[in-house]
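Hey,

Quick one before I head out. I ran the complex with zinc ion overnight. Inputs first:
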Amino acid sequence: MVDYPGAIPMFVPADNVFPGYWGHIPIFVVIHKTAGFHTAQEVASFFQTAPDKRSAHFIVGMDGTIVQTVSLDAGAGANCCLEAGHAAFLPQGMNLNLLTISIEHVDPALDNSTPLTDAQKKASFALVKSICERHNIPMRKGDANGGIIGHCDIAPVNRAHCPGNYPWDELFAYLNSGGLEMIDLNTPGVANYFEDAGDGRWRCKHNGLVIFGGILKQHKIDNPPGSGETYMMHLYSGPGQDPRIDALTKQLADAQARISDLEAELAKLSPTPELAVDCINALKDLKPLVLKL
Ligand SMILES: [Zn+2]
């Protein structure tokens, strides 16, 4: 039984895992890359027969396939030993497999330098979010209270390139946005409107504006005519900012200055309080006279 919808079950033998995390509670998600292999299934087969009992809970393939090899109710064998120079917040003197949930990402390059594909990135981010929610793990960079870390935080010598170029900034942008959908150029029709601008950004083919991920559903807030389902909120500063924003900001400042001027004029014209009292009294005197008319 898999713990994540759509994951393919390819579990390692039961005696390769740490049942119930041996009474501990996992507080870290550890991101890995495979430095070899081409599919998630290949990596899972390797784990199933690895003599050193190594494993991870999930493997994310370059096509977005997710394979599960260890139940989330047990520790996997991915994060053995702390090495000199490890992240200072990690607890010493214990098997970190008892505190961690591991996700591998297929990368055929030995130095883990292949960028994640769009499908792989999307699958990875959603999986990380799901695990953090399931296990109450903080959705931020790891610290003494838990969070998301790289294998290199544990083993900076032998695993310095794990997870290599994993897109951390994009992951945290995604998690901070509440995990809304990113632009996926493979979604029918989307590529008619957007092209990849690199670095987790997309350029609108129509107006050349560049937008940045994780906020697809915001089009409901900022819904210009013709935006359709693929529209994302504009950037409000920096590259890609909508040029109309500067003009509107200036108009607003001018209007505010004009309001201040008018308020000052009005203050000059207003009667003094004494004068106002006199006027009211005079009106009261006039009222009976008016009624008589
Ligand atoms: Zn690793």
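The radius of gyration is 30 Å.

Talk tomorrow,
K.
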